[in-house]
Amino acid sequence: MNSFRNVTDTPLPRLAERPPESHKGDFGRALLIGGSIGMSGAIALAGKATLRSGAGLVTLAVPRCVQPIVAAIEPSYMTHALADAEGCIAESAAEDICTLAGRFTALALGPGLGRSAAISRFAERLYTTITQPMVVDADALFSLAEHRDILHQPGGPRVLTPHPGEFLRLIGKSHEKALHVATDDEQRAQLAAELARDGVVVVLKGHRTVVTDGSRLSINHTGNPGMATGGSGDVLTGVITGLICQGLPPWEAARLGAHVHGLAGDLAVADFGQLSMIASDLIEYLPVAFQSLNVGC
Q1: Pairing of the two strands 5-6 and 29-33
Q2: Who's near 45: CB < 8 A, 6+ residues apart?
Q3: Helix, strand or coil for residue 5?
Q4: What is the pTM for the complete model shown?
Q5: Is 117 helix (H, G, I), strand (E, B) or coil?
Q6: Which of 22, 24, 26, 30 is nearest to 103 (CA)?
Q7: What is the rounded distance in angstroms from the CA atom of residue 273 to the CA atom of residue 189?
Q8: Local structure of residue 204 (DSSP, 8 states)
Q9: Which helix (H) or strand (E) holds 2?
């Protein structure tokens, strides 16, 4: 790790204090894109986490067929119906998103998106054309791994949040090396830094999550095995998106987001235990995690 500026032990980024005359527009507008039949919970978790992380306004763009379900989960976010096909977002909906994007501070793409050739083309277009910062996770990473040549052709700043399996697909390594990537900090950091360039920040999730922009490196030390449960990554996507909305640059938002996400898990495990903790528990403990850090709240 000698080629990096290791900032692991330096103070975490801070959010600015909120002036008394603040209004919701001051804290950013987030657009989260995802959801499909059977996976409406993923985008809802990400949306709720974005709200709990301080974004002023949050909109979830979802296929029309699941909009009523997603809207019913949380009244504090808005929803936008997209054209759908076979239970997923239709490829043609990319035009709608590109038109909408200019109204938003930050976007997130991937939770519950689904997988198909059409979805891959949809994700690739948004990744390469939208200029706003974008957090990319889950099925959107699967789409990018299908065409790795576009990874370093982003339309704007990007934060990729792969788990080890998704990361190996992105870098084209064989799955037999997954255990090595998951446990060796130096190897994981080197590989993540090779992917993190041209405006791309990589958050390689796992025990001791790696956050790097290719020149700076941070190893996260919060979190526990109870967070190895479906939806935990969707919550992280929302946390990082909410922090970008409030003005943190993608690298700083990714570093603080990984820490707060893990801290929420550490707080939750005291009440629920590692066995019974679920992803929505993390959202409930985000307020305490932010307050304990005194990072602008």
Answers
A1: unpaired
A2: 111, 231, 234, 235, 238, 279, 280, 283
A3: strand
A4: 0.96
A5: helix
A6: 30
A7: 30
A8: E
A9: none
Superfamily of domain 27-293: Ribokinase (3.40.1190.20)
* Encoded amino acid at 123, one letter: A
pLDDT score, position 237: 98
Strand ranges, E, within the chain = 5-6, 29-33, 57-63, 78-82, 84-85, 88-89, 106-109, 134-136, 158-160, 200-204, 210-212, 216-219
Strand partners, 31: 59, 107
C-beta separation of 264 from 226 below 8 A: no
Give the span between the Cα atoms of 44 and 40, in whole angstroms: 6
The residue written with tokens 């994700």 in the block is 123
Which residues fall within 8 angstroms of residue 106, CB to CB, at 6 or more apart?
28, 30, 31, 55, 132, 133, 134, 135, 241, 244, 245
What contacts 184, CB < 8 A, 6 or more positions away?
none
Residue spans of the chain under pLDDT 50: 1
Task: DSSP letter for 30, please.
Answer: E
pLDDT tens per residue across span 227-252: 999 999 999 999 999 999 999 999 99
- Concatenating the DSSP letter of every residue in 67-110 gives HHHHHHH-TTSEEEEE-EETTEE-TTHHHHHHHHGGG-SEEEE-
**Could you tell me the residue ranges of all domains in the chain?**
27-293
Six-digit token string for 94: 């990319």
